[in-house]
Amino acid sequence: MPAEVIDGRKIAAEIQAELKERISSLKEKGVNPKLVAILVGEDPASLSYLRGIARTCGEVGVLTDTARLAENVTQRELIEKIEELNRDSEVHGILLFLPLPRHLNTLEAESAISPDKDVDGTNPISAGKLLLGEETFFPSTPYGVQELLVRSGHNPDGKHVVIVGRSNIVGKPLMGMFIQKQKGANATVTVCHTGTTNLAAMTRQADILVAAMGRAKAITADMVSEGTIVVDVGVNFIPDPATGRNKQVGDVDFEAVKEKAGAITPVPGGTGAVTSIMLMVNTVRAAESLSKSRG
Amino acid sequence: MSATILDGRKISAEIREELKGEVSRLKEKGVTPALAGILVGEDPGSTTYVGLKSKACEEVGVKEAMVRLPETVTEQELLSTIERLNSDPSIHAIFIQLPLPKHLSEEKALAAIVPEKDVDGFHAMNVGRAWLGQPAFVPAVALAIHEMLVRGGYDLQYKDVVIVNVDSMVGQPLASVLVQNKENARANVTLCYPTTPDLASHTRRADILVVSVNEPKFITADMVKDGAVVIDFGSNFVEDPVTKRRKTVGDVDFEPVKEKAGAITPVPGGVGPMLVTMLLVSTVRAAELTLS
Fold first, then answer.
1. How far is B201 from chain A (nearest CA, A)?
2. How far apart are CA B255 and CA B6, in angstroms?
3. How far apart are CA A238 and CA A254, in angstroms?
4. What is d(CA B190, CA B172) in angstroms, rounded to the nearest whole number?
5. Do residue B58 and residue B182 come from a single domain?
6. Helix, strand, or coil here: A24?
């Protein structure tokens, strides 16, 4: 019996509608939520991602700006720019585009972002606070996964979540979030490495299986137990024999796994659709906190 | 066939011998590793622990600089003391003996220690950096368990490690160390809590089982895979049924589990004796880092 297909776009739209109200309230008080992206160099993938963010900001009513720095910017100039944005009372969210050119010290730059404005949880101190259960901003991709699960009626509370892939952007923060004694968490969490010999034995244990390894269609039907909730965070581009162009697929062999899973997220239209709206959620929250503390 | 006993006292002594050598080498380069501890009040437990740390420093050649503050110290005075130690270039490592008296905020005090000297690894910056695989200080329990496994020759890559504890002292930092994509790590880590549904199904698949729940005989033989490595970080004070005297036991039903496990830590004599030693390891490392 085919799985329920979880509609990421619908969930993103719900969240967006809620956000618009919060943004209206802020604007009534004279606060215009603003996100500034710092981009060093001209990497086309980053430029494309930036355009996507600008579009989402426009749709919800969040101001956006980009601080463009030359490829050969010095470490000092980069840190100064971050500190300038930290001090700017009109700026509520700072997004540092990674990776940075190799001559720069990434860790130092990440650590310079004010935690109050670190809306993608880039500063290592934000990762620490996440793990310690202190108030912080969750990185947008894992935050989106949590929202998607909770809003589609598949709360991880009390469940066994198996995450395949232990990246700093998805796998690790997701583990940190799900072990907290909080709503939308309280799960037993396993993180596995893709090189594991008998990976299927581990993935079959899951109540909720999160695929975040970056390998097209690596999760096959034999790796999934009947009724498992399958969340696909993978974004891979493979050639489509039909069109001769590249198409986007996830880490899950969708057609095959769909017959076994209880629920499944499609790619595209699943977690990806929720990721960018979570960045907006964090920016709005930053604006709310920062405007409150100024009285 | 009985499990190998993982002797924390022996491992601790080995590490301290190695540390003596490292400290000598640092002194030759003009650096005397120094550890400052802050003790507030007269709580007997805290006083004992600080005493153990002082003695250990002396044993390996680390300079100790304990600061004793009265029970009535204000938060501002405590934070000023920490600030002074932060700025003192002759101090490489700072720890605060917990618990603090109720009128003081532990969270604020721990966050006030500069991350480069936070050898207990409690500062959110160290927690985050360790988690992300960056150089950082890690809490002693996690370091101790990792050392025990590595020195015992237990391979960690892709092993099924199940940890029954999710707190910031044991489960989280240990997961942090073991999940990294590097040598002596790369394990598949599961974090459970005592009330995880069907917990036995998790513990039974573990190649390496770590438990810290503070409940005697919480882990029984039927919950353990044949040949598993069992690490017990429980501490329970119970009455011995035979002698009627009080004694310390762990969370594992030791005698029956010993017959199934491949290796097991006794309590006492397992991870406990290694904790102060691992604090010294971090202190020496903090001192070494000032050279680079």
1. 10
2. 14
3. 14
4. 10
5. no
6. helix
Residue A293: pLDDT over 80? no
Q: What is the CATH number of the domain that holds B60?
A: 3.40.50.10860
* Cβ of residue B197 closer than 8 Å to a chain A Cβ: yes
B182 found inside a domain:
yes
Domain ranges of chain A: 31-117, 140-272
Query: How many domains, in total, are found in chain B?
Result: 2
> Chain A: nearest CA to B194, how far in angstroms?
10
Interchain pair A188, B168: CB under 8 A = no
Is A192 in Cβ contact with B172 (below 8 Å)? no
Same domain flag for B162 and B264: yes
Tell me: pLDDT of A295 over 60.
no
pTM: 0.95
C-beta atoms of A188 and B189 within 8 A: no
What is the per-residue pLDDT for B218?
A: 98
Chain A interface, mutation test: which of B110, B114, B131, most A Cβ atoms within 10 Å? B131
What pLDDT, on the 0 to 100 scale, is given for residue A172?
96
* Residue owning tokens 């310390």: B248
**Contacts with B171 from chain A: Cβ below 8 Å:** 179
DSSP states along chain B: -PPEE--HHHHHHHHHHHHHHHHHHHHHTT---EEEEEEES--HHHHHHHHHHHHHHHHHT-EEEEEEE-TT--HHHHHHHHHHHHH-TT--EEEEPSPPPTTS-HHHHHHHS-GGGBTT--SHHHHHHHHTT-S----HHHHHHHHHHHHTT---TT-EEEEE--STTTHHHHHHHHTSSSTT---EEEEE-TT-TTHHHHHTT-SEEEE----TT-B-GGGS-TT-EEEE---EEEE-TTT--EEEE-SB-HHHHHTT-SEE--SSSSSGGGHHHHHHHHHHHHHHHTT-
Q: Is the pLDDT of residue A122 over 80?
A: yes
Taking 70 as the pLDDT cut, the residues of chain B under it are 1
What is the CATH class of A140-272?
Answer: alpha beta
How many CB atoms within 10 Å of residue A25? 12
Q: Tell me which CATH code domain A31-117 carries.
A: 3.40.50.10860
Of A124, A188, A190, the CB nearest to B188: A190
Name the CA radius of gyration of chain B, rounded.
20
Out of B128, B166, B188, name the one closest to residue A128 (CB).
B128
Domain with B239, as residue range(s), is 140-273
- Tell me whether residue B241 is in a domain: yes
Q: SS3 sequence, B53-111?
A: HHHHHHHHCCEEEEEEECCCCCHHHHHHHHHHHHHCCCCCEEEECCCCCCCCCHHHHHH
